[in-house]
Design goal:
2 copies of one chain form a homodimer. Chain A is α/β, with parallel strands linked by helices. In chain A, 23% of the residues lie in helices and 17% in strands. Chain A is built from 11 helices and 16 strands. A 10-stranded mixed beta sheet of chain A has the order 7-6-5-4-8-1-9-10-2-11, with helices on both faces. In chain A, strands 13-14-15-16 form a 4-stranded antiparallel beta sheet, with helices on one face.
Chain lengths: 464, 464
């Protein structure tokens, strides 16, 4: 048997002794459920491109966002830090709104700034939601270019157009919302044509990759979908078994295929690390317009597993073992630290960075340095995962089955998430020793937590 | 680029004009949950062999057993017929017990009898549960050989040994139960050493395949696991993150790997159709000793999706497209009909056979001929799926979240399972037309249903 697998690769780094800096692509979805991909068990959503990404890369089954809602979660990805540390959260307003005057603080070292410092070309495509005033926008925070919407696609509701209230979501039309589409600092379309937005984001990302083949580059592709109102382009209308949600999801899957195909075709695949993740769990109150958390309990807005555990994939051919599954703990904040380390960029040392370097997990030769997950709602620490154990000190539901107000628990409700990922069988009475250890960990954590004033509570016009 | 993928295959059928009859292997688990495999989304159970089986074959995401409990479900697989048609169900006793005198009726044409008629060597390995009296055992129903336990592994409880009641399940030992292990018609070990039972079943199946390489053969490998009490051999003790359930499941996964490796190594892979499925959903009342139905509602004993939708794989290299996912409707009764058709065996025409031929689905060139699923509890029709629609006429829970008694619904509760696989959003009020169509289908179905007297209600000593 004789086989040449592929053409030799004639691309070399300038300095042959140094491995080339990998390109980094982060594909970030909105309100995607843990159970919404084929490779995470959904029965009626087809995701052949994501399934292939998993088959060629790594599926991470215990990977968390840093918040169960949008703005804080994205701030954590962009800074590697818990939102409470930079004020990108609030106990009053969960996220930034069009009438907010705050945004990502200037002294934060963003993902893009850190990579730009070591020579990366940087593009932000998609939903930002870290402040819509000029100083907060991507191109003033480390990105060379920006194309996308500045906040959620359901903001700027036009209540004098179309059906009012929730009814607008069931038959969404572009003109019911007045969301702006921006390029860099300018509004180029309003309302944004959301029907074609996934397609246009994809085209932008692909174009950027093709025009930066000499690398290194960083592309942050943050889809507006699967946040309601749901849209998909004409080619995906009524094509999935799962209805509108499935159509939109299958277009995201198509988009992932376009990005990976571009990397394959340009010969950049082996030197590009691609992450796929989401900002928080599915928005269950929207019935079939919300996603599925699979076997996990609850969804968006809660610190149950369904609110913060994300369906995560990492792809980097020749580096990440094909078809691998990691059950190690990870966080979107680790995407920041891991990518910076691999790029040879500086991870800030003058402040607490919560992200850890997951490279040993990715290349399959070591455990995760992450031993704990802290589940916050605004500034409030609600729950802590320590190894397989999770203690809920306070719970707050968003869906019918859980109460919609905060409820304190003393002793905390304890689950063993490896044995009981659905958080069904409380075992706090059997394990007081574990609760003691978690309480110690909380004290240690809180001794290093200096919360910054909330950016989300600053009204428009009062920006400092 | 030049590539020889494999050595040429010098095996030919005796008559070159006829395709060789495929060997058939059915691997059937007990009480396995829809969400318990890695490829169906479980976060902490490792199933690399089943994942590979899916990657090389087909994952079927809308595939059903014919009953939410053991005996009726297995009877349907073995006969291609709904249990009510042959009396292998009851409204009083859900399954056969050691004090039962009934079993599979002699006039049924079993899976093994049909294949034996066209020259197959036939082996039954594992749990039978279609009657433990001699006339009901596998070797009197079409199987050349039998090695296994005649009923569930939690029957024959010895209440004078070890902890009583449910406590015995939390730290199970072989000696707490008096389950017999049989070879053909003889008891060869009592109590059966359940610690090594998955391993020994596997060895038997592999040995049978190796000694019947000239084919054709049919192996029915019906694991005792994941039914409580859970056991695993020493090599799998404390090796999974998921605890005892995960250990036992990962041994099943190992077993699947052994069977498929044997087929690969003997060169039989391309001519062997392997099915992987389970008899019903997870037994949720056993907490972490029960499995997970993933995103599906409820589990074993109920006609919610979690009770009857099974994680199903089909593997037949060179015939079933690798890595394919089918969302078409299927049933364990279709395993019977499809396998018989492919083997050139006669599907009975003198009685109603509920199984349909899924060959077009398997080879990827057509839709499923199955348009409906009938959900029975004993002789009672509880629910009907027609295309994507499911109507519950009666519900009955088994777990905490559903009432444990029968509850009638008029109008029936209606769900769109493609849009809402978790049965969360009832829509009967919006679709009276669909309910009318389903009611017509029920009348049609019932006009062709002639229930046979129950075999499960015959006491020992009263066998006809």
């Amino acid at each position: 048997m004789f086989c040449i697998f592929a053409e030799p690769n004639f691309t070399f780094a300038a300095n042959a002794a140094e491995p080339p800096k990998p390109n980094v692509v982060v594909i970030f979805c909105d309100d995607l459920g843990y159970g919404d991909l084929g490779c995470f068990g959904h029965p009626t959503i087809r995701t052949p491109n994501l399934d292939r990404m998993a088959a060629e890369g790594m599926k991470l089954t215990q990977f968390y966002s840093a918040s169960p809602v949008c703005t804080p979660s994205r701030a954590a990805l962009m800074t590697g830090r818990l939102p409470a540390r930079n004020g990108m959260c609030s106990n009053k307003r969960r996220v930034l709104f069009p009438n907010s005057g705050g945004g990502i603080p200037a002294n934060e070292v963003t993902f893009a700034e850190a990579l730009k410092d070591v020579g990366y070309a940087t593009a932000c495509v998609g939903k930002w939601h870290l402040g819509h005033l000029p100083q907060f926008l991507p191109t003033n925070n480390g990105f060379d270019t920006y194309f996308g919407i500045p906040y959620s696609n359901d903001m700027d509701r036009l209540n004098d157009v179309g059906p009012r209230g929730r009814a607008a979501f069931w038959d969404p039309k572009v003109e019911y919302w007045n969301v702006p589409l921006m390029r860099d600092l300018e509004i180029i379309e309003r309302p944004a044509d959301q029907n074609t937005i996934t397609k246009r984001y994809t085209d932008e990302a692909v174009k950027f990759i093709k025009s930066h083949q000499d690398g290194p580059f960083f592309v942050y592709l943050a889809h507006s979908m699967m946040h309601v109102p749901l849209f998909r382009s004409r080619e995906f209308a009524d094509t999935s078994l799962r209805g509108l949600y499935g159509d939109a999801m299958e277009e995201i899957d198509w988009s992932v295929g376009q990005v990976l195909d571009t990397l394959r075709e340009t010969g950049l695949a082996d030197n590009t690390l691609v992450w796929f993740c989401s900002d928080n769990g599915p928005w269950l109150v929207f019935d079939t317009h919300g996603g599925s958390a699979g076997l996990l309990r609850e969804g968006k807005g809660t610190t149950w597993e369904g609110g913060m555990r994300e369906p995560t994939l990492a792809w980097w051919p020749e580096h990440i073992p094909a078809g691998s599954v990691s059950m190690e703990l990870g966080s979107t904040m680790d995407i920041y630290t891991t990518s910076l380390k691999l790029a040879g960029a500086d991870v800030p040392t003058d402040r607490v960075v919560d992200g850890v370097d997951l490279s040993p997990v990715l290349v399959g030769n070591g455990p995760s340095p992450r031993k704990a997950v802290f589940y916050y709602r605004g500034y409030q620490l609600m729950a802590v995962r320590m190894g397989p154990w999770k203690a809920h000190f306070v719970t707050h539901g968003s869906y019918g089955s859980e109460p919609r107000q905060a409820k304190k628990h003393d002793p905390p409700i304890l689950y063993h998430l490896d044995h009981d990922p659905s958080e069904k069988y409380p075992i706090q009475n059997e394990h007081p020793d574990v609760i003691d250890k978690i309480k110690k960990l909380v004290l240690e954590h809180q001794s290093q937590m200096q919360p910054a004033p909330s950016q989300l509570e600053i009204p428009l016009g009062k920006t400092k």
